[in-house]
Write a structure and sequence with these properties.
alpha/beta, D-Maltodextrin-Binding Protein, domain 2, 2 domains, six-stranded mixed sheet, three-stranded antiparallel sheet, 13 helices, 11 strands, globular, disordered N terminus
């Protein structure tokens, strides 16, 4: 009896240790398998009502249906998207706080702001590049041009009185960057007139206070269709389906010119890979559905639905592009 006791105790202690280890690991596995088990928050670091907010609400609705839990959109605007982005970067990496962001806080702001509270490459993990939209180069109807080549000739001739162009949202916003990039490519002078937001830029253009601007295509097409503004070209690599008569800038004499802005979903770094993969798959399936493609394109937003790895590579490339433009234009935020 005594001789059998020691081996039994050793075996029992080993088995107990295995069971204890399994018990410690089981909640992690269970959480990954049952995600989500409660409501998920999608932070949008810009005001409600814009194209990004619309995309977020479409995704939230469909994700709630497919994953059987509420997905709630929370708008946290401020500091050109930095406030909401920083909040997500510092959130627990459990999959219950996500970010749907215009790419600029990740690709532009690191070159503009001397200090950010977050590092895009270190603190955030891409899930998918959901969609993109172009900007449209528009002019007031009084500007005597009908094409990009005519506008460039008109602007170059205005050496003593550079054309007035507007953008909304502070230095380094999409319209500001796009015009500076275009000026560098086309070789003309311009005077920047800053506005608080895109709606104010539209009002300034329609009212004739400024002559030209690059504006987000989804928010300007109605003014073009009503004849209050003239569209010369779109900034993206191809024409948009809802306004196929507007050429691209690349088609208009500047091959290789391509500017798009991207709607990207990310999570705090450290999110369980099983959760990240699940979200990537669900988001891609939703965006690739005929319904979402139709609804996004109706707003002049182009569906993409990339993988997380593809989104990360894109963000890196775009950040390098804007860093070059910002340095050449000497754009700074003190």
């Amino acid at each position: 009896m005594t001789g059998l006791a020691a081996p039994w105790r050793t075996t029992s202690l080993f088995a107990f240790a295995v069971l204890a280890a399994a018990a410690l690991l089981f909640p992690i596995a269970a959480n990954a398998e049952t995600y989500p088990s409660r409501a998920v928050k999608i932070v949008v670091p810009f005001p409600p009502g814009g194209p990004l907010d619309t995309t977020a609400r479409l995704l939230a609705e469909k994700l709630a249906t497919s994953l059987k839990q509420p997905f709630i959109v929370e708008n946290r605007p401020g500091a050109a998207g930095n406030l909401g982005t920083d909040a997500v970067a510092k959130a627990p990496a459990d999959g219950y706080t996500l970010l749907l962001v215009l790419d600029t806080p990740l690709t532009v702001n690191p070159s503009l702001y001397p200090k950010l509270g977050f590092d895009p490459g270190r603190d955030l993990t891409p899930i998918s590049n959901v969609a993109s939209f172009s900007l449209t180069l528009v002019v007031h109807p009084s500007v005597p041009v009908k094409a990009v080549s005519e506008f460039v000739a008109y602007a170059r001739a205005r050496k003593d009185k550079p054309v007035l162009y507007g953008s909304g949202g502070g230095p380094g916003n999409p319209g500001h960057l796009a015009m500076e990039y275009f000026r560098q490519k086309a070789g003309f002078e311009g005077t920047h007139v800053p506005y608080k937001g895109n709606s104010e830029v539209v009002m300034g253009l329609v009212g004739g206070q400024i002559e030209v601007g690059f504006l987000a295509t989804p928010g300007v097409l109605s003014n073009v269709q009503d004849g209050r503004l003239k569209a010369l070209a779109v900034s993206g690599p191809r024409r948009i389906s809802v306004a196929a008569d507007i050429p691209t800038i690349a088609e208009s004499g500047y091959p290789g010119f391509e500017i798009g802005f991207y709607q990207v979903m990310l999570a705090p770094v450290g999110i369980p890979e099983s959760v990240r993969t699940l979200l990537e798959r669900e988001v891609r399936n939703i965006v690739q559905s005929a319904e979402l493609q139709e609804r996004l394109r109706a707003q002049a937003v182009e569906p993409i639905a990339s993988t997380g790895a593809e989104a990360g590579a894109l963000l890196k490339r775009v950040a390098e592009q804007w860093q070059t433009v910002i340095r050449a234009a000497n754009i700074r935020i003190e």
